């Protein structure tokens, strides 16, 4: 199987091998050491400001989205949410669920966030800004510098869902002034799903200490307290945390986050060059290195997904809802190489020869 989806993505052999091992008991000095190293490497790779913390929640990426909202925002906040697709919409639903006052910046499909959108909300008493920096559902990558200066000017608490962007696009928490950065195990970390990670700035930590969150499992106060000694309040997905450890150490050995980002960027570029003469149209105004969203000009996108899966054992990422037949996405995160791109391109050409494309 060759996996070009956006998560779960292709894991390396090393990560798969750890997955086949017995899961150890975790209230031990050995596991604490792994967790403390995981935290340090996450802080390093996101360039978190001094005295930041990272917590590892057992749950998919959405657990971190929800935890960020309920531990740092209250009904006295006034939140601005960038809603350009299904992940932006998810932040809207989370705020709605917990009665956090919000307004949304609605973007149409494939549309980038621009200064004119933000200008409407300048100086209007907002307190926080929520954005999925790469709206994975449409493949649009937002301009972090634009967001960063708007938030600084308006003194907004900035929560960045970088779940599909972390380790694929440059992200510097100190430089952009983000207060919370979120990611998940099954995207560019290329591990199985089940762990989501939050990097928390001192400003976020101060909000958490004061919070009276209505949730027990996702209350970050106990996660932070236990994390001081490399532990978690409840049984975590121990096996995945061991896989994340191997992956983070590996990235460090290979030169750190910047080198990994360069590798993903080169792979995305290689793919985008190779599809130039295929009957596809790129449908995003601004792309992440993580994904290329494509519109096949002559046939159903979903049919291409099915054909590649059933006849070639290659997985690309279909879209849901209205876009099902219009768009598919090709991911560049995970243990993939330029040779793998060639295999996918050869399959596209084969479909073309058969008159399918
Ligand atoms: C994958 C993803 C999530 C998390 O989704 P889960 O299914 O809960 O893991 C959140 N935001 C973005 C932008 C994503 O790409």
Which parts are unreliable, with pLDDT below 50 for 5 consecutive residues or more? none
- What hetero molecules are in the model? pyridoxal-5'-phosphate
| Average pLDDT, all residues | 97
Number of strands: 15
CATH architecture of the largest domain: 3-Layer(aba) Sandwich
How are helices and strands ordered from N to C? Answer: EHHEHEHEHEEEHEHEEHHHHEEHEEEH
CATH topology of the largest domain: Aspartate Aminotransferase, domain 2
Q: For the largest beta sheet, what order do the strands appear in spatially?
A: 2-10-9-8-5-3-4
Summing up helix and strand content along with how strands pair, one would put the structural category as: alpha/beta
Morphology: globular
In the CATH hierarchy, what is the class of the largest domain? Alpha Beta
Strand content: 15-25%
Q: Radius of gyration in whole Å, from Cα?
A: 20 Å
Number of helices: 13
The residue fraction in helices comes out at 40-55%
Number of self-contained structural domains: 2
Instruction: Give the end-to-end Cα distance, rounded to a whole number of Å.
Output: 22 Å
CATH superfamily membership of the largest domain: Type I PLP-dependent aspartate aminotransferase-like (Major domain)
- Give the biggest sheet: 7 strands, mixed
């Amino acid at each position: 199987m060759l996996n070009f989806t956006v998560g779960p993505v292709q894991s390396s052999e090393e990560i798969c091998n750890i997955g086949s091992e017995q899961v150890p008991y975790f209230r031990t000095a050995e596991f604490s050491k792994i967790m403390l190293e995981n935290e340090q490497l996450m802080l390093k790779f996101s360039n978190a400001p001094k005295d930041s913390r990272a917590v590892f929640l057992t749950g998919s990426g959405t657990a971190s989205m929800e935890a960020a909202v309920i531990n740092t925002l209250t009904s006295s906040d006034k939140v601005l949410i960038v809603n350009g697709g299904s992940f932006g919409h998810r932040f809207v639903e989370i705020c709605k669920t917990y009665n956090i006052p919000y307004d949304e910046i609605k973007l149409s499909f494939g549309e980038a966030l621009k200064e004119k959108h933000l200008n409407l909300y300048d100086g209007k008493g907002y307190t926080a800004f929520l954005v999925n920096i790469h709206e994975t559902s449409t493949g649009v990558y937002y301009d972090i510098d634009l967001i960063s200066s708007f938030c600084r000017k308006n003194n907004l608490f900035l929560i960045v869902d970088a779940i599909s962007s972390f380790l694929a696009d440059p992200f510097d928490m100190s430089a952009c002034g983000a207060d919370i950065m979120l990611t998940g195990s099954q995207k560019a970390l290329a591990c199985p799903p089940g762990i989501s990670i939050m990097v928390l700035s001192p400003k976020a930590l101060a909000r958490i200490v004061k919070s009276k969150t209505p949730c027990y499992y996702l209350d970050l106060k106990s996660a932070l307290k236990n994390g001081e000694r490399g532990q978690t309040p409840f049984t975590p997905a121990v096996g995945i945390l061991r896989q994340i450890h191997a992956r983070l150490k590996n990235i460090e050995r290979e030169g750190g986050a910047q080198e990994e980002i360069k590798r993903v960027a080169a792979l995305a570029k290689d793919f985008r060059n190779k599809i130039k003469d295929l009957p596809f149209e790129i449908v995003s105004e601004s792309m992440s290195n993580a994904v290329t969203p494509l519109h096949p000009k002559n046939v159903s996108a979903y049919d291409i997904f099915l054909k590649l899966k059933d006849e070639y054992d290659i997985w690309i990422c279909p879209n849901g809802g209205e876009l099902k037949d219009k768009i598919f996405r090709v991911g560049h995160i995970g243990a993939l190489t330029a040779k793998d791109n060639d295999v996918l391109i050869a399959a596209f050409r084969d479909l073309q020869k058969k008159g399918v494309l």
